[in-house]
# Entry
Amino acid sequence: MHPLEIVSQTLPNGLQVLLRPSYRAPVASFWIFYRVGSRNESPGHTGISHWVEHMLFKGTPRYPRGQFDKAVARAGGVFNGMTGPDWTVYFETLPADRIELALRVESDRMANAVFDPAETELERTVILSEREGSENDPFYRLHEEVQAAAFLAHSYRNPIIGWSSDLHTLTREALYAHYRTYYTPNQAVVVVTGDFEPDAMLEGVAEHFGVLAAGPEAPSPAFVEPPARAERRVVLRGEEPTAYFLQGFQAPPALHPDFFPFVVLESVLGGAKGMGLFGGSANNRSNRLYRALVEQQLAVDTSSSFGPTLDPGLFTISATLAPAVDPQAVEAAIWAELVTLQRTGVTDAELQKAIKQTRAQFAYSSESVTYEAYWLGFSQVVASQQWLAGWNEQLLAVRSEDVQRVAECYLQPERQTVGYYVPLTEEAHPT
# Structure
C-alpha cells in the first residue's frame, strides 16, 4: 500500500478518515476502529469492551434491534464487529452504490446506542455462556492461565472476554460510561476502501459524523509491565485425555525496531502467517518446530503465535502432545531449537524462504477491499501508516544476524512463562 494512494483527513471533532479508492469491483468496505480494547480495562471491569461491542448490535431509536441486520442483508452486504486487546472495530462491506448505509448506521450507533437494561442482562447471559463454552477446551484454559501469569501488571494479562467474576458484577451504568468515554469521534478511525469517489465520500463522512461532538480525552492505561526477571510456570490438570504444552515469551510491540526481525524469527520457528484477522496460517512442514516435535513424534501438532500490539506483547509456542509423551521432553526439544538458533543463527536460504513466505501471507491477508480496509485502520491504531507502507521494505531489510540477535535477547528463561496441561490419568512433572 503506497501512502500516496491514501486520502487522509481529520475532521474538526477529531475523527480520523482514511480513504483508499479502487475500481476493480463495484464493492466498497467501511470500517470504524475505536481506540479501546482489553488493554484499556482495569481490575473489576475486564471484558467491558467486548460487552459494549455486543451492545451496539442491540439497536438505537432509529435502528431498533434487528433492523440494522435486515437493512444490510437487503442491501446485499455483510457486517461484523470484533474486540481485540488494542481496539474495537465494526465493518460493513456492501455493493458500492449502497455504502452510504454503513455511514448512516455507524454514525447513529456511535452516538445513540440504547443499552436497554433488559437487553444488557440478556447479553450478560450470552457472554457468560460463551465463556463457559470456551472453558470446555483445556487448551483455552491453559492459554488463559499462561497469559495471566506472563504479565504481572499490564492489562494484556486479562482475557478479552473478561474474567467470569467481573462478568457477573458489571453494571449497565458501567457499560454505558465505557461507551460514552471511548465511542467518540476523537477516539475513532474511519476507513473506506473500494469503488467510490474520494471527494464525495469525504463529504458523506463529514455529513454523518461531523455533526457529532468530540468526547473527553480518554484516559491512557496506567499499566506498565516491569522487565521480566523470573520464569513462571503453570501446571493445569483436568479430565480431558490430551496433553498440551504452551510457552510464552515477552516480545516487542509493533513500532519497536525488533518487531520485523521477530516476525522473521517466528516464521523460521513456526511458519509464516498473515498476522491479520483474515491472514493465512502456517501450512508448511519445513519450519524448525514441526521438524523437532511432529517429525520426532513428540507432538501431533505444533504452532506459534506473534502479532503487532501497542505495548510489548507475547510470542507463544504451543504443542499438542503425542500419547504418553512427557511435556518435559517437548520443552527440552523446543529449547534445543532455540539455543541452536541463538548460537548459529539462520542460513541465508532459510532467511530468504521465511521472508518470501511471510510476504506472501501478508499479501493474501490484504488483497481484497475488505482486507485492505482492516489493515489501514488496524495500522493507524496500533502503529502508523508509514509502518504499513514500509512493511515489505522493513521485512526485506532483516538479516540473519538480526534474527540471531532477537533470539538471544528475547528467548531467555527469565522471560518465559511455561504451561503444561496434564490429564489427571498421567503424572505431572513440573520443574
